[in-house]
Design goal:
Length: about 475
Amino acid sequence: DPKYSKWNYADLPIVPSEWQYRVLPDTKKQFDILNGLMKDSRVGSIVCATDAGREGELIFRLVYHLCGCTKPVKRLWISSMEEPAIRRGFDNLLDSANYDNLYAAALCRAKADWLVGINGTRLFSTLYKGSTLNVGRVQTPTLALLVQREADISKFKKEKFYTVELKLEGLTAVSGRIKSKTEAEKLRKACLGTSVTVRLVEKKERAEQPPRLYDLTTLQREANRLLDYTAQQTLDYLQSLYEKRLTTYPRTDSRYLTDDMADGLPALCQTVAGTLPFLAGQPLPVDAAQVADSSKVSDHHAVIPTAEIASADLAALPTGERSILTMIAVRLLCAVGQPHTYAETTATLECGGSVFAARGQTVTAQGWKGVERAFLATLKRVPKEVSATLPELAEGQTLTGGDAVLKSGTTSPPVHFTEDTLLSAMERASAEDFARLEGVERKGLGTPATRAAIIEKLLRSGFVER
């Protein structure tokens, strides 16, 4: 309708009586090829082989309908690009009607985006004249997260607190937080040179399991934290690596591989490790069962390097691509590794009528953390060290008094979002609400494929700054 060329509050809401579609100029050439094939008299039926997910279904159906095609359709549903999985998929083609609800869900999402975008943007832009105020079903709640965080920081009131540290032979014990400096100083004086009684000693064997493989969002978060790359930069580097056949499909929200990939993992890990000189001498066991679980794979499996990495000239890659490829390679080797194990000792001590705590750890097996530490060393990042080992302590034991030191600190406000923490907040948005619903296909704000673009759009719109 020509009247919509001018933005008027009175014309809202805009709700189409008929939804219309057109082919974009940059995809018209490929569309015409598909159109010709679908109308070819030699073609009796069609196999839909787009991504095994909601958006893949929508892309196929839109093309199918725009071509005016009525030929029968079967659906290829695979998440793995391994040849046995593709063959198995073709052996088990299902009728397209089985996926009608998936198409309906995707269509609902697309229409919701359009309706919220056109009506919300025009509403706020006409109410608050002066500039275009973009509103979107994902970008506006994301902006709300940022606004709320800044408000929490602004209204935060710092509170000072004090602690007393006991410096004993072989250990340091710390009191709980004390609001009054006078009370804290009184405790410090009471403990100075006074003997200390061991009230409780707890020893536990602990294991830190290997991390899961990367999906796109987790990789973007880690690359922001370790390398200071933006979410968009990471996606761009990863897309380029994918096009060079060095990594698997980038826009995934899964952190597992399909079961059929397990057998090839030992050879792939050996190939990958051979490209990382800093891992020379590191033990590299491979437990494929930890990362292979088809039931936890959605449209695409986790991001991993491909075997092509062995023959590629990695030194010729741009720095950003090489760094991202290294991160993905290291994560694969960590994910199939052994647990990191350590013994943890917690001691509760008493002095001056107050309770003090001391903790210590002893690493019993580096496991997957050996690989991670070797990688972090190349970035000149020193991992946070575990607490020192405590001396042997027994309940009821009396320790010779030592120095007592007064320490002060302040409570910390919430921290500003980084792209790492904002991506995490988008991923976990309304987690409690989703937990009460059954069979929810998508959770949080946006998808791994769209979150970087949403952040960049908020920046371009001038709503936020990096």
